[in-house]
Specification:
Elements (H helix, E strand, L loop, with lengths): L4 H32 L16 H23 L2 H4 L4 H14 L6 H19 L10 H8 L2 H25 L4 H30 L8 H27 L2 H24 L7 H23 L15 H4 L5
GO molecular function, one term: magnesium ion transmembrane transporter activity
Family: Belongs to the NIPA (TC 2.A.7) family.
Keywords: Cell membrane, Endosome, Ion transport, Magnesium, Membrane, Transmembrane, Transmembrane helix, Transport
């Protein structure tokens, strides 16, 4: 399927977003490492990282990236924008090798290449953006039974992970913290798309902020983003960056695509061939992230065990 002008704009914004977000993982990790030596770690409830300039620089980079990502959703469908987050994995993995000295094996580099190939495949076959003329249309999509059921399932799983599993298993199983971020993120993206479309229509002269639905979507975005930041900090403080980035990407992207298909019906006007090609591209990206994860420690010397860093060096359980 050919790229429309809006899809091209969304693509450029999504790539820019990946560069800033990929950098933010590394810069924030540097701040968290410095904070761990000066106070209580973020994973155990500490907030000493708030005094670290590196952490704030990472936050600024992430905010810039999220703004670009926010804008991308106003122009292109989530099934195009979200998979391009794989580029942030590549960028953070390369920086982690040179700055944090987290070695990237040859097969990890192959994983990066697979991510690029999969991203290109999805970009070239992405569906056109759905025509939206009012935020009320998005509200109508969000209140259909299918998406309401999906949202209820997500909220239930988030509550179970936070109150049942995070206190006892959060520091051992990476899927706990990343699961909370990903489930919340899939709902965040739907709300971000709604607010982005509202801003786009408003700038075109059709004010959407006179509707209460726009403000509800905005509040949901703020609340969900704060939750994601909190639990992403915990994951980054405990686990290797080359693990957090791909696992978060896989879970977040999968759930976001599912949410977008349910809410915006992205595949309604796509042929079976186009859908199959997009799925192949997505599976290629998943294969790349799998390689990045499985080869994260290959070629690394055994870590020295110390009382301070032992918990962060233990291999995480998925």
């Amino acid at each position: 399927m050919g790229m429309t002008k809006d899809n091209v704009i969304g693509f450029v914004l999504a790539v820019s977003s990946s560069i800033f977000i990929g950098s933010s993982f590394i810069i924030k990790k540097m701040g968290l490492l410095r904070a761990a030596g000066n106070g209580k770690r973020a994973a155990t409830g500490g907030h000493s990282y708030l005094t670290e300039p590196f952490w704030w620089a990472g936050m600024i980079s992430m905010i810039v990236g999220e703004i670009a990502n926010f804008a991308a959703y106003a122009f292109a469908p989530a099934i195009l924008v979200t998979p391009l987050g794989a580029l942030s994995i590549i960028f953070s993995s390369v920086l982690a090798q040179f700055i944090l000295h987290e070695k990237l094996h040859m097969f990890g580099k192959l994983g990066c290449a697979l991510c690029v190939v999969g991203s290109i495949t999805i970009v070239l076959h992405a569906p056109h953006e759905r025509d939206i003329h009012s935020v009320k249309e998005i509200w109508g999509l969000a209140t259909e039974p299918g998406f309401i059921f999906y949202a209820i399932i997500c909220v239930a799983l988030i509550c179970i992970l936070i109150f049942r599993y995070a206190p006892t298993h959060g520091q051992k199983y990476i899927v706990v913290y990343i699961g909370i971020c990903s489930l919340t993120g899939s709902l965040t993206v739907m709300c971000v798309k709604a607010v982005g479309m509202a801003l786009k229509l408003t700038f075109e002269g059709n004010n959407q902020f006179k509707y209460y639905q726009t403000w509800l979507f905005t509040l949901a975005v703020v609340g969900c983003c704060l939750m994601q930041i909190n639990y992403l900090n915990k994951a980054l403080d405990i686990f290797n960056t080359n693990v957090v980035s791909p696992v978060y990407y896989v879970m977040f992207t999968t759930l976001t695509i599912v949410a977008s298909i349910i809410m915006f019906k992205d595949w309604d006007n796509s042929s079976a061939q186009q859908i199959a090609t997009e799925l192949c591209g997505f599976v290629t990206i998943l294969s790349g992230t799998f390689l990045l994860h499985k080869t994260k420690d290959m070629g690394n010397p055994p870590p020295e065990v110390s009382n301070i860093s032992k918990s962060s060096e233990d291999p995480p359980e998925i």
